[in-house]
Amino acid sequence: MVKAKKSVKAKAKKVKANKVKVRKVAAPRPEANPKAEKVPKLKRMLKKDLRKFKDMLIKVRSQVGGDLSHITENTLNKSARDASGDLSGYSYHMADTASDDYERDFALGRATDEQKVLYSIDEALKRIEDASYGNCLQCRKPIARKRLAVLPQTELCIDCQKKNEAK
User: Fold this and answer.
1) DSSP string over 77-116
2) Tens digit of each residue's pLDDT (9 = 90 or more) over 7-66
3) From CA 81, how far away is CA 91, in angstroms rounded?
4) How buried is residue 39: exposed, middle or buried, by Cβ count under 10 Å (0-12/13-18/19+)?
5) What gap in Å lies between CA 42 and CA 140, rounded to an integer?
6) Structural domain boundaries of the chain?
7) What does the alpha-carbon distance between residue 49 and residue 133 come to, in Å, rounded to a whole number?
8) For the purposes of burial, counting CB atoms within 10 Å of the CB of 102, is it exposed (0-12), middle (13-18) or buried (19 or more)?
9) Taking the domain 42-79+103-167, which CATH number applies?
10) Model's pTM, two decimal places?
């Protein structure tokens, strides 16, 4: 057993002797590309402006939320028979059925649009909290105040919006 211990120790010494020292080298620095676009630094809006736009967003959110609940109550929670006002158990004309289906589909489309607006308002409120509100999410340039006054939940400047619509 003594020989076995010595041979293990001898092998360990050989392994240590064979190790090569690795020298750490700093990663190469990325070279400045003069043609690359510089990303503008985000400009922060004044606190009073942020409060004003936050109030606007909350007001729009409550209005849109009311519209959505109205659509849900009047259209989506009623059956086709209740919506048409037909109290009898008899089937009614195909044209009546088709127009009722059209109205329900139209209401569903409106509800979907209202839900998207609510989502964009919530995202804008999050951007107000992290102080990035008022800057375009694509080009990072400030969004015009006139645009924010009309559409406070917008996330793109007018130029980026035009580019996206052209695609």
Assistant:
1) TS-HHHHHT--SSS---HHHHHHHHHHHHHHHHHHHHHHH
2) 656 655 655 555 545 455 455 555 555 555 555 666 777 788 888 988 999 998 888 877
3) 9
4) exposed
5) 6
6) 42-79+103-167
7) 10
8) exposed
9) 1.20.120.910
10) 0.60
